[in-house]
């Protein structure tokens, strides 16, 4: 069973998700990096894929400079939906999926770069957190989707068919968060983000984050991905 992953080259770490894939017999991860100039061979990419996972990005879904890369990504999700291949879309990937499903893209009224608790409709399969949020665009919920979690600022999780869109980052390990903070430290501190506290919490709750990610993925694989 194979996993096709769509990601920025700089942000392609699957972190805690690797353990989830292994637990469910998913292996052979194929990585497709965004931003290629030549057209993606969508049918070939999805051949043999049992799951599509899309990750966060350095870009905004409202960025005109990355329109072509997003159009290529749209075609991947459209074809996956047509074939009935489950999709787990995270952060930017979730916002792109919303576009594919007909929901407009919108800037968030305020950024969420913090550990957040979410209001969850089912804490047995989707724990309340804390989860790592890092976004400045809204996760817009398409018609026909079921909203599963949100914060006071924005929707956080919805299900649509065999797709699960997740605004927060269940995959990010403490080490990966440290790397991302180092890449963006000046911009984060200009926004008033306490970068030391952000990374300290990641280390403090590392095992809890691992367990919550497993819980979320187990629920997704047994429910949404299975068409239930």
From TrEMBL:
Top-level lineage group: Bacteria
Keyword Transferase: yes
UniProt-recorded Gene Ontology molecular function terms: transferase activity
Stored InterPro entries: ChyE-like, Class_I_gatase-like, GATASE
SUPFAM superfamilies linked to this entry: Class I glutamine amidotransferase-like (SSF52317)
One cellular component (GO) term of this entry: cytosol
Domain Glutamine amidotransferase: 70-181
Keywords: Glutamine amidotransferase, Transferase
Keyword Cytoplasm listed: no
Name of the protein described by the UniProt record: GMP synthase-like glutamine amidotransferase
Organism, scientific name: Streptomyces candidus
């Amino acid at each position: 069973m194979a996993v096709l992953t769509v990601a920025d080259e700089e942000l392609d770490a699957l972190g805690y998700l690797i353990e989830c894939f292994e637990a469910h017999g998913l292996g052979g991860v194929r990585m497709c990096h965004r931003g290629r100039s030549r057209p993606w061979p969508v049918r070939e990419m999805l051949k043999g894929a049992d799951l599509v996972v899309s990750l966060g990005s350095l870009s905004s879904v409202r960025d005109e400079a990355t329109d072509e890369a997003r159009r290529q990504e749209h075609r991947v999700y459209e074809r996956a939906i047509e074939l009935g291949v489950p999709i787990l879309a995270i952060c930017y990937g979730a916002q792109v999926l919303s576009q594919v499903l007909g929901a407009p893209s919108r800037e968030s009224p305020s950024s969420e770069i913090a550990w957040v608790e979410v209001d969850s409709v089912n804490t047995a399969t989707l724990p309340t957190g804390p989860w790592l949020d890092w976004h400045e665009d809204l996760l817009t919920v398409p018609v026909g989707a079921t909203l599963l979690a949100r914060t006071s600022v924005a929707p956080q999780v919805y299900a649509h068919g065999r797709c699960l869109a997740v605004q927060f980052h269940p995959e990010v390990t403490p080490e990966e968060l440290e790397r991302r903070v180092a890449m963006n430290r000046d911009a984060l501190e200009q926004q008033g983000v306490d970068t030391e506290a952000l990374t300290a919490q990641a280390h403090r709750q590392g095992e809890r984050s691992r367990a919550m990610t497993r819980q979320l993925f187990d629920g997704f694989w047994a429910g949404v991905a299975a068409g239930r």
